[in-house]
Amino acid sequence: MNILVTGETGYIAKSLSAYLTSKLIDSSLFQKSVQNRAINNLNLEEIDVLIHLAALVHKKETPNSEELYYQVNTELTHQLAMKAKSTGVKQFIFFSTMAVYGDVQGEINYQTKTNPVTFYGKSKLVAEKKLLELQDEHFKVCIVRPPMIYGPKCPGNYSLLSKLSRKTFIFPKVENKRSMLFINNLNEFIFQLIQNKESGTFHPQDPQYINTSSMVREISKVYGKSIHFNKLVGKILKLLIGNKKIYKKVYGDLYYERELSLYKDNSYQKFNLEQAIAITERE
User: Fold this and answer.
1) Are residues 14 and 85 in the same domain?
2) Of the residues 93, 127, 145, which one is the last residue of a structural domain?
3) Is 60 in the same domain as 175?
4) Cα dist. 107→91, 143, 211, 223 in Å?
5) Residue 160, Cβ density class (10 Å: 0-12 exposed, 13-18 middle, ≥19 buried)
6) By CB atoms within 10 Å of each CB, which of 47, 114, 141, 186 scores lowest?
7) Residue 191: pLDDT above 90?
8) pLDDT digits (tens, 9 = 90+) for 44-65
9) What is the DSSP letter of 163?
10) Given CA atoms 168, 58, 198, 259 in this order, what sign does their dihedral have?
11) Quick check: helix, strand or coil at residue 37?
């Protein structure tokens, strides 16, 4: 089996490529950057599985950037998929996003409608629809909509929370609920999609919901640090900035219904929160 992973310099691409290489002993894995490479010149003749991770993600959105989001996340994806199908690629795994649901708060389930509000979310959802139009019995499409991903040396919000957990002695105690996905659980999930020759839309997540205060506690435990979690501080914080985007991003509820993330026996959820944090902080 030959596997091609795009987005070769990205955090997920590096981790996933290393994991698949270790698991698929009799397979060959290649990494390619496709954003600055003409799709027509890309050789996919002997590729069986294409995992498309290349995307425009963490860029400040302005009215002038809308076209670029659609060029990279929608049109490039569509062109790549058409090329893959025409050359005999059997499975196309596309990394989409939770952002296709928009500004929804609370639980996301089978009844929740997609309603993206950002260029990123909108461009990913259009790409999903274009891919599903290409799918047939010989060209299987997997759409993966992960929540926030964390793991060793990960970029983004987790690393900021980790730094804060090592410095602060007091933290707001807020009872919130969020879906997150440890990178090693994600890697195993993709491995199983390949092994089972799957198609469909998937919403993987960790075995338990994440509470921000609990995550900070687990991080501090790794360093033998004691933090006081204060409900009053949490209430004051909510009163002052509860309607702000930053508060909702850190302390709001946003999670996938359990049934939505069910896959086989959920054996892809190899690590719980305590194990995931320990691995993340010690590597």
Assistant:
1) yes
2) 145
3) no
4) 30, 20, 14, 33
5) exposed
6) 114
7) yes
8) 999 999 999 999 886 678 888 8
9) H
10) positive
11) coil
Residues 120-151, buried b or exposed e (16+ Cβ, 10 A)?
bbbbbbbbbebbeeebeeebbbbbbbbbbbbb
62 and 167 fall within a common domain: no
Give the pLDDT confidence of 202-234 residue by residue, as tens digits: 999 999 999 999 999 999 999 999 999 998 988
Residue 193 within any structural domain of the chain? no
User: 171 and 134 in one domain?
Assistant: no
Number of folded domains that form the chain: 2
Cα(42)–Cα(67) distance, integer angstroms: 24
The DSSP-derived string for 191-225 is HHHHHTT--EEE----SSPBPHHHHHHHHHHHTT-
Whether the model clears a pTM of 0.85, i.e. scores above it, the answer is: yes
Q: Which runs of consecutive H residues, i.e. helices, occur in the chain?
A: 11-23, 66-69, 76-86, 119-134, 157-167, 183-195, 212-222, 231-241, 245-251, 273-282
23 with 104, same domain: the answer is yes
The tokens for 47 are 């590729």
- CATH code of 138's domain: 3.40.50.720
Residues 206 and 269: beta-carbon distance below 8 Å: yes
Pair 140, 165 in one domain: no
pLDDT of residue 36: 61
Domain that holds residue 69: 2-145
Which residues on neighbouring strands pair with residue 183, listed in sequence order?
Answer: none
Cα(147)–Cα(98) distance, integer angstroms: 6
Cβ neighbours, 10 Å, residue 74? 19
